Amino acid sequence: MAGPASVATGIEIGSIAPDFTLRDQFGQDTTLSSYRGVKAVALVFYPFAFSGVCSGEMHGIRTRLDEFLTFDTEVLAISCDPVYALRAFSDADGLNFALLSDFWPHGAVCRAYGVFDERGGSPERSTYVVDKAGRIAWAVHHPKPAARSADDLLAALRAAADAEPA
Q1: Active site residues
Q2: Domain tally for the chain?
């Protein structure tokens, strides 16, 4: 993939994705390594629930979720908002995929992925695709206020889902 896919964030392509367990908007734990050998995963870091660009991006994922899920993939959207705010965001916008809270310790997962904005106290708008083997297959940082491309993300997920686990 050319273009934005070459603009990597904090972790090198091909390295093992840092594992984590975060709570979703329903208070349920989600562990990244539980997908290893089963599904490719899109980690969609976004600054704030209810903000204009982020709401638009999440709406875009929601309306195309069937495309994301047709080839053994999962979408995990991560912000530093508390679980209760994520539940309200999910309910208000009809978001039917996991919104994970990196609230406490504040931004620990975002820092592990090199996408935490210390000044703003939130993740940078960044995306990682983790292949079925648990390795970073694709990464891109999206400068504010630019939105990410669902088409680029779908293409990266398809490629990661098609790759055989190592």
Answers
A1: 54
A2: 1
